[in-house]
Amino acid sequence: MKNAIYTTTLLLLSLTAGAQDWPNIKRYEEANKAVKSPAKGEKRVVYMGDSITDFWINNDSTFFKSNNYYDRGISGQTTGQMLLRFREDVINLKPAVVVILAGINDIAENNGPSKLEDVAGNIFSMAELAKANNIKVVISSVLPAAAFPWRPAINPVEKVKTLNEMLLNYAKKNNMVYLDYFTAMADNKRALPLALSKDGVHPNLEGYKMMEPLAKRAIAQALQKK
């Protein structure tokens, strides 16, 4: 609890320190206002992430509508930006479960170089904020990627592997669900194959269709955890 309070204090200080909406809190501001308190027995789920989550609802909106899922992905975001908007886009919606999928844009250095320990730490902080607010946590693996079209000089393969190991170990240690997209989707070069993606980073509809049953199974597991 103390760690969560400390993290929340840091978030507030960070928000008041900058004049611009770096975490893009306004993206879902109006949509969040329209969300009502959960009905009795409702098992609301929020997906927090970057473009992979952001594009998911456009590729398969039925998946979200039919399962009472809320998509709160923002394209291009790093884990630090997600952490800053976590209260507005997750906690305040009062979900039963949050599915966190983050880290690939940090590896791509979208906001500059980052240590993997800091990237993982941002994800851990989101998980701890959720836990402090009685929200079950699903920590997703980073999807496979062998190259970035917008950062061709970066080879992400080993960093994706290392970050996923850190996330898996944290989930095990803290009795949280680890959602392993990587193993299901990676080819023998640890890349996202063209059958599942046009650019090797973002899933196409076939890729999302592969992810969906894995996500639903992980959510069910999270709901069963004490």
UniProtKB/TrEMBL annotation:
Keywords: Hydrolase, Signal. GO terms for molecular function: hydrolase activity. InterPro entries: Ester_Hydrolysis_Enzymes, SGNH_hydro, SGNH_hydro_sf. It comes from the Bacteria. The keyword Cytoplasm does not apply. It holds the Pfam family Lipase_GDSL_2. Residues 1-19 form the signal peptide. Residues 49-209 form the SGNH hydrolase-type esterase domain. Gene3D superfamilies: SGNH hydrolase (3.40.50.1110). This is SGNH/GDSL hydrolase family protein. It comes from Mucilaginibacter rigui.
